[in-house]
Amino acid sequence: MRIVALGGGHGLYATLTAMRYLSPDVTAVVTVADDGGSSGRLRAELGVIPPGDLRMALSALMSAPAALADRASRPGRLDRAGHELWTNTFQHRFGGYGALAGHPIGNLLLAGLTEVTGSPVAALDELIDVFDIDGRVLPMSTVPLEIEADVSGLESDPRISRCIRGQVAVATTPGKVRRVRLLPAEPPACAEAVEAIRGADVVVLGPGSWFSSVIPHVLVPDQLNALRETAARKMLFVNLAPEPGETTGFSVERHLHVLHAHADVFRVDDVIVDAASVPAGRERDHLVRAAASFGAQLHVGDLAVPGRHVHDPEKVATLVNELCEGELGR
C-alpha cells in the first residue's frame, strides 16, 4: 500500500510507527508552523521552515520496529547497530548553556542541508538517501507558517474573543480556542505532498495537537483539494483525551465538530476512536452522527497503550489493516 500520514509532532510519530508495520511505502506530510524551542530559534535566525516536526517524522521512519526488522534481513550501507546509532544521534540535543544548547543534531542537519540545496524537500530527500530510509518526509508547505487563533475566556466578557498568534502561544493559552487560521493566508502547498496524496491508497490524518497539527492540514487550499479528489481511503484518528491548553474540556464529538467547522467540504471514509474515550450509549450515538457529517463510518476499538493516553502503534496497524482488507468494512 501507498500510505500518506498527515500530522505533526508526537501524534504523527506514533502514526508513522504504526503505518510502517503495514508498508515500507509511507509518506509523512508534516505541519510547519512550530515557533518554539530549537525550531523557533532556527526559523527566526535562518528563515527556514521549522525542522523539529520534520526531524521527528524522519526519526519515526528510521526507528520503527518494522523498519529495523527489515534492515536485519536486508544488509545495506548501515547495519542495524550503525543505523540505531545514527537514529539516536539524529535525535540527540546538545547540552550546556551556549548557542547550541537545546538544538537536536537533526534540526541542524536539516537547516544546513536546506541552505546548501536551496530546498527543504531536497534536504529531506538527501537525508532519506543518506540514512537509507524507506518512505519519504515532506513539509505541508514550503514556506514557514504561523498559526493565529480566536480565543475566548481571556476577557471578562466570555463573548469576546482575543486574537492569539503563534503555535506555542495557541497551545498554551488558558482560554478556549474557537478557530485557527494560517499566515500567510492560503499558503502554497508542497507540490510533492499534493502528488503523494493524489496517488495514495490510504491517507491518515491525526491524532495530534488538534488546532496546531491536525486542522492546519485542511487550511492549505491545494492540499485540501487533493484530499477531496484522491481515490485513497481516508481515515481520521481522534485523540485519546483532550490536550491541556488547546482542547481542554473537549469531548471526542467536539473534536469532530471543530474540524468540520474549519473545512465542511472535507470528507473521510473512517473516523476511528478509542473505546475508552467514548463510553457506549448516547455519547457514542452522537459520535456516529458527527462522523456522518464527514460522510464517514465510526469505528471504535482498543487503541491505547494501557494506562496511558498514547496510541499503541501495533493496535493501530491491526485496525487499519482490518479496515483495508474489509474485515471491518463499510
From TrEMBL:
<dbReference type="InterPro" id="IPR038136">
    <property type="entry name" value="CofD-like_dom_sf"/>
</dbReference>
<protein>
    <recommendedName>
        <fullName>Putative gluconeogenesis factor</fullName>
    </recommendedName>
</protein>
<dbReference type="InterPro" id="IPR010119">
    <property type="entry name" value="Gluconeogen_factor"/>
</dbReference>
<comment type="function">
    <text>Required for morphogenesis under gluconeogenic growth conditions.</text>
</comment>
<comment type="similarity">
    <text>Belongs to the gluconeogenesis factor family.</text>
</comment>
<dbReference type="Pfam" id="PF01933">
    <property type="entry name" value="CofD"/>
</dbReference>
<keyword id="KW-0963">Cytoplasm</keyword>
<dbReference type="InterPro" id="IPR002882">
    <property type="entry name" value="CofD"/>
</dbReference>
